[in-house]
Structures are given as structure tokens and as C-alpha cells.
Amino acid sequence: MDRKYRSQSMSIYFLMLLVPLFWGGAFATAKHVITEIPPLVAATIRFGLSGIILLIIVIAQKKWLWKEIKKHWKGLMFIGFIGIFSYNALFFTALKYTSATNGALIIAAMPVFTTIGSVLLFKENWSNKFGLGLFLSLMGVVIVLVKGSFSALLSFSFNLGDLFFVAALLCGVIYGLVGKFILQGAPVLLSNAMMMLTGAIFLSISTVFEGGWGKVLNMSIQSWIEMIYMVVCGTLIGYVIFNKGVELLGGSKASMYLNLTPIVTTLFALIVYGSSITYTQIVGMVMVLSGVYISTTNR
What we know:
79% of the residues lie in helices and 0% in strands.
């Protein structure tokens, strides 16, 4: 491993902390935006604007390389379809049939299945230390999501919406597993621009069935500010960093950072919307932080 690559690998550990920070905030703000416009319309605007902005930057920097596009376009289209369109379409459709808590509990298993897939399919190293961190963070996420009420966990019931969440989970796992190989060597901004535009195109097609574009004209100033946050922080910065993390760290380590997202969402709701937090949730947050630290440090 050369010095440049080793330096990138070290710095990405710290940059990856921004991903749950921005994605947690984006999830909280999206909950308000979709009260004014349909979910898939919101997702189309989010990824469409992000892709266009990245495309403009790439062209301005004269990094629009047809050779690289021809080399990676199939893989990038696949990631755009699986990681952006399919995941978001299934996620938001699921919310129509089941609770956000059910969905979050299912999605929380993503690092576990990504790690299992990495070990079985790609022979990634496994250690008891990593397993301990994985277990701690998963249990911590569950505690945060059910707010320490294990009766809520025991009352979990499986329905159609949960099946959609399982399908979304599968898309996320595939994204984490194959992303490292597809993104390896591809220019960062160019690959992300293509991925987001591909996802936005598929999302826009799906809105033909959902409708609701007329409501965009009546969006409030608050929703547009929240949309700008989702575009700039949650997508432009968040996805670029996460994809780089998948490339450098692999799917299992990169996905571990996703367990921090519920913590950020809870704290964001506490600070901005005045929600409450329990001592049990705080214990859960400490477990998540400890688990992520244990599993992502050298093993």
C-alpha cells in the first residue's frame, strides 16, 4: 500500500463520522418535507439536484472523462439503481404500511448482513473484536429505537411494509458489498454524479405513478431550506464520503458507521423539535459508540 493510499485510509475513518451526522439530520428534515410533497418526488429532487451540481463541477474541472465513463458505466448504473432508486423507493413505500420504528429496526441489521456477506463471499477478515463491536452497536441501536421499552420490541409484528423494508435492507447490503469493487479506481466526483443522476432518472419515472409534482410549487420556505440541507449535506457530501469509505474500508467497516445514524436523528429531534430522550436511550447511544469504535479500529 503506497503512502497516499495509506493516508487516505487513515483520514477516511474521521470523515466517515460526518456520514451519520448528515444522514441523521437529513432523515429528520425529510420527515417534514414529505408532509408537503410525496416521498418519491422529494427523493427525485434531492438526488436530481445533487447529480446536476456534481455534473457541473465535473465539467468545470474538465474531469468529464469518456474513457472512464465507458469503463465504469454499467457498474455505476447498477449502483444508482440498487443504492439510490430501489433503496429509497422501497423504503418510502414501506412507510405507507408499517411504522418507522419497525423499519429502523430492520434496517439496523444492515451492518450485520453486510459483514456476513463480506466474510462469506469476499473472504474479509473476521475477529472476535469485530464481532463484539458489531453486537454492541446493534444492541445499542435497538435500545435507542425502542426507547428502552422492551415491551415495544416484543410487540413487533411482521406485515407487508416490513417485507418492503427487508427488500430495502437487501438493496443496501448489495450496495455495500459490490460498491467497493465497482468504485475502485473510478473518479470520485464523476462516479457519484453518474450514480445520482441514474438513481434520479429511475425515481422520476416512479413518480409518474405517485404524482404530486404540482405540490412542489407550494412548498414552504422551511421545506426548501431542509431540501437544500439534504442536497448539500445529506447527499453531495454524505454520499461522496460514504462511497469513498466503501472503496477504502470495505462494505463491512463502512456500514458500521450507519449505526450512528439513529443517535444523530434522536439528538437532532431533541435539539430542533424539542423531543424527549430517556436515560436508557443514552445508555444505548454509548453502546453504539463503543461498538463502532471497537469494530472500526485495527483488528
